[in-house]
């Protein structure tokens, strides 16, 4: 680890014992013992983390991976935001945030607090009020004093201000800037320092990963805050990337210019989405993007770590926001490592790849049903685990009286209890590792038991 980072991490003496051990462990593991993503990152003087959210914590298969050596840092996706922590004015709730912190502390993982001030996920009492500048300043300071004060000594860093800029580099028009002007950022940082003196204080934003108007605006903001004597310790680069838009320009150089100001930089919300379905070409591009991000961080001594925005497609935010896009994370919806993507990250961190080699034969089918009582929508996702195929036919059977109404993304037919789906003219080719989803509506009476066996082109699938 370069000496500046060691000095900064050693300074965080007021953290709880569990969090402190997690931070100082960044330098304790020799590279020869490293194999997981966080172990490899530790050997490079960084952490590798994941976001999470409270509903996921009830999924024991999920938490077994989240709490493993793959991750050294945890970011709560929603449970520390304003609507969760102060749903009514002056009434604070920390149950959900405490659950995430307790999970991380029990496993020696550090916590990135997220986020004290944002223009979204604000409670109605706040957004519907008519506040003077003095009133809103008091509300802001009181909120940060309570939330950051509650977690004092338990978090490594805070995303104090989240997403203050528009893409053109102008300040976002929102409750804070409209009422308080741009000075609200300095007010928030000062309040956070007073409430949690030893936590690293960040400003966090998206589309600042490469050089451009927005990252220039952030750079100038940091310089301005420093000139005013306002506490600012780091800048968070979210890293929500998409292969169809090209990789950010001069990412490493951009990170370096912020580091040259004397602040830490971190990749805080990394995922790399694509337009579905996935295929070998898209996955290869995605893997290269992940490689590029890791190498950019490793190339800057003050890049302290990388956090992916949850680790599995099962809980990704992407499909719910970007219609028709997804497959953005290193683990798939079944919590299995994606060999190409996980392997690329592992290799870029200095490992040997670490992914499970793809099977040379076979297929995988995921089945889900949205049931409304007298009918349901069935969705099947086929993943080709063998050599590339040109043309596919899926077969499965129901045990009840389910009757096909209509289907899409395939030609659907039914004979008795047996269902057959064949490819359309545009989705018949499946490269190794590629997936395709098709859906259909059915009616039924009685019980609606899911099918248990599937076959593609005569091969039984897992």
Task: Describe the model.
There is one protein chain. By secondary structure, this protein is of the alpha/beta class. The longest helix is centred in the middle third of the chain and has 19 residues, at 280-298. It starts with a helix and ends with a strand. The protein has 2 domains: 3-348, Glycosidases (TIM Barrel, Alpha-Beta Barrel), CATH 3.20.20.80; 363-460, Immunoglobulin-like. Strands 1-2-3-4-5-6-8-9 form an 8-stranded parallel beta barrel, surrounded by 7 helices. Strands 16-17-14-20-21 form a 5-stranded antiparallel sheet, with no helix packed on it. Helices cover 31% and strands 25% of the residues.
Q: Count of DSSP helices?
A: 15
CATH superfamily of the largest domain: Glycosidases
Average pLDDT value?
90
CATH topology of the largest domain: TIM Barrel
**Assembly classification:** single chain
Q: What would you say about this model in short?
A:
This protein is an alpha/beta fold and 462 residues long. It is 31% helix and 25% strand. It folds into 2 domains: 3-348, Alpha-Beta Barrel (TIM Barrel); 363-460, Sandwich (Immunoglobulin-like).
